[in-house]
Amino acid sequence: MRQFLLASPILIPLVATAVTAMLWSRPAAQRRVGLVAATLLFATTLGLLGEVLSGGMVVGQMGNWPAPFGVTLVVDHLSAAMLVITGLMGLAVAVYAMGPRAEERDRAGFQPLFHALLLGVAGAFSTGDLFNLYVWFEVMLIASFGLLVLDRTREQLDGGIRYVMLNLVGTTFFLLAVGLLYGLTGTLNLADMARVAPGVENQGALAAAAVLLLVSFGAKAAVFPLFNWLPASYHTASMPVAAIFAALLTKVGVYAIIRVFTLVFAHDHALFGPLVGAIAMATMVVGVLGAAAHYDIRRILSFHIISQIGYMLVGVALMTPLAIAGSVLYVIHHIVVKANLFLVAGAVRQMGGSFALARLGGLWATAPLLGLLFLIPALSLAGIPPLSGFWGKLVVIRAGLEAEAFLLAGVALAVGLLTLYSMIKIWNEAFWKAAPEPAPAAGWTRAQRLATFAPIVLLCGVTLTIGFWAEPFAAFSIAAAESLLDREGYIAAVLGAQPTRLAEAVP
Amino acid sequence: METALALTIGVLVAAAAYLLLARDLPRALLGFVLLGTGANLAILAAGRVGTMAPPLVASGAEALAAGAANPLPQALVLTAIVIGFGLAAFALVLVMRAHAEFGTACAEDMDEAERPDEVPATARPALAPAAARKEAA
Amino acid sequence: MDASLILRVSAPLLLWVPMAVSVYLLIRGHNAPGGGFVGGLVASAGLVFYAISRGQEAALRAMRLPPASWCGIGLLTALGSGLLAWLDPSAGYLTHRWWFPDISVTLPLGTALVFDIGVYLTVIGTITAMVFALVGEETG
User: Fewer C-beta within 10 Å: chain B N or C terminus?
Assistant: First the structure.
């Protein structure tokens, strides 16, 4: 059962990709298959999380080849949480994508690409092998390329080229780092690499490989100064696509940084801690300032993704249990909230006729429910108690203070305030001020409206749950942090008590 | 042999960096292909090079004989080549579409994605002079 | 695209040569260089050649299903080969299973072959989809 649950977050999207591709010329059938697959994915990830909570880390070797020779799948607390969130987002966006313009999107191949994207993300979260991580990154990238330019508009082609070029180079750096690390440690299995890395003679070369990885994952996570591709491309994508990108893509980069730097390069923390800390601060500030300078909802939200990535890196910068717990809690909260804001932006576009704040207005009078559904994630993003963002920020900043990283904590606080400014800006312009011109009729059917609002309400519910009932989520984050810092436990769980010594077998 | 490989990788990466800096997208794409080749060679170099026995376990034996080649880097490189091929093909299609749409393959002439935003009347123009000027013009 | 008369007439015949070679490569991959990926490449080269001589429409008709569907069928086949592993529930996904039917010579059949057939179909689907998208841009 455990083996089945372990493989299913990869198998389900893979089957869904295959089946929806087979049904290429029947979009309606694709949509039904897609919805079933997304529901199944969410259910099995919940099952997997239950398994991790009750029985600890789930480890499996594909094809029964023992680690470190075979393809290893490892799901610990962090991976399980990320998989559940992936499932939740998959479901929310699959429903949302049945809203307006679903037919057009599905004719262009949305469904196979969407499930391929989930496949890549789920694979990246559950693999225990560096090269496989690279492969899953590429699966995710190819799918995201296709999704980004789904409508083939000029805007999308331009944004797509920027996205593609930067990410191509980023993943090639990953490949270079894989080559270097393999040469240095003689293994690609993350657990085995963590075992061997502290004893590697040439620590300088190891650090060089680590920096290459940091650049590659950082480009993926859109950290300073490698973030330019994100605000150039995300806002051009169609809304369900932008929502799933905002939720998952950058977070895979963050996850990879957390995983690799807590596991393989933990012994070199004195070097990477301050570096990541500086990157985190710059990322927070640059993102929030960029958002303050824009007047298009999608672009404001895109810049806020960048700013929030900074908070998630605090864990790696400080490497204390509390800081890592803060990062984990922050990632969980952020994915839900950010995706939801993009979903709301899509609804705003449908009801107000535009994404540009200059053209919007009066939505509070015409759509009060939408206003409320916007305020919940928006205030949560800014960290207003008692919403989920408050707890995330609280833990991160508290960890900063405890580790005496006062500058980091101060920046995090100030950036929170500026986030509030941007959210209030959207509120004032889109919802509060009088409409500059009467909004065109939304022109959607009842079913489309339901498909749009159901996921928004669901995600708002999750945000409120994390906010009002934070205790279990905080406890889970601390458990996740402890398991991340327990490198010996991870190594033993993957390699067994008497590891097969690949590193020694192959010089 | 290793020196030659290292030099080749260096030249490839240097050429790739030069090409990637080009505004002309097909050149940048060639740069990506060269960079990928450099990375693949780096993996190959990481797994020992030289004349070695093929990595086949003799019948009856439990492990490879000493001095056998390391098969893993080749498997990795094969995978990476396939993936790189797919990515390059996709990027090529994208560049061709962009060329058909914009009439140019120069990155500088494509500025659809990052137009300045329309500034709402309620936001003071002084806050965003560049955007306001653009709108007036 | 105006292909020469000779090319157009001989195209259907010439389609069978790469197809046969590709299947040979696919099966040869069992114990020698070859396999699903190379086989798939050769087969798609054949189809692309057919598309050049007879036009894309004809090539798509010859394939019966859209390229994306071939890709899907291939993926499902490869996946299915891994599911057979769970005949023994404790085994990891993709664990090999073998079957040795005795038809005058012992014919070793394994789930690896099924996997390779899946790869073969996926490669055909992917390559033709990509090439047709490119060529479509040229002419359209």
Answer: C
What sign results for the dihedral spanned by CA atoms C72, C78, C84, C90?
negative
B60, part of any domain = no
- Domains of chain B: total: 1
Please name the residue of chain C whose CA is at the shortest distance from the CA of residue B79: C37
Using CB atoms, which residue from C126, C130, C137 is nearest to B100? C137
- Domain presence at residue B46: yes
Domain range spanning residue C24? 5-139
pLDDT at position A502 is 46
Q: Is B94 on the interface with C (CB under 8 A)?
A: no
CB contacts of A138 in chain B (<8 Å) are: 83, 86-87
DSSP conformation class of C87: G
pLDDT tens by residue, C101-112:
666 666 667 778
**Cα–Cα distance between C75 and C60 in angstroms, integer?**
20
**Rounded Cα gap, residues A383 and A381, in angstroms:** 5
Q: Where do the structural domains in chain A lie, given as residue ranges? A: 2-505
Is the distance from CB of A180 to CB of A208 less than 8 angstroms?
Answer: yes
Q: Which of C75, C79, C93 sits opposite A62 (nearest CB)?
A: C93
Question: What is the per-residue pLDDT for A56?
Answer: 84
Domain boundaries, position B93: 1-50+70-112
How many Å apart are CA C92 and CA C84, to the nearest integer?
11
At residue A216's C-alpha, the angle toward residues A215 and A219, to 5°, is 80
Number of domains comprising chain C: 1
User: Lowest-confidence range among A246-255, A345-354, B127-136, C3-12?
Assistant: B127-136
Q: Judge whether B9 lies within some domain.
A: yes
List, in sequence order, the alpha helices (H) in chain C: 5-28, 36-54, 56-63, 67-83, 111-139
How many CB pairs (< 8 A) connect A and C? Answer: 68
In order, the DSSP letters of B89-132 are: HHHHHHHHHHHHHHS--BGGG--STTPPPPPPTTS-GGG-HHHH
* CATH code of the domain containing B29: 1.10.287.3510
Give the per-residue pLDDT at C103.
Answer: 67
Rg, C-alpha atoms of chain C:
18
Query: What CA–CA distances, in Å, run from C12 to A202, A323, C121?
Result: 60, 66, 20
Could you say which residues of chain A have pLDDT below 70?
Answer: 63-64, 67, 442, 497-507
Is residue B96 included in any domain, yes or no? Answer: yes
Q: Note whether B48 contacts A160, CB cutoff 8 Å.
A: no
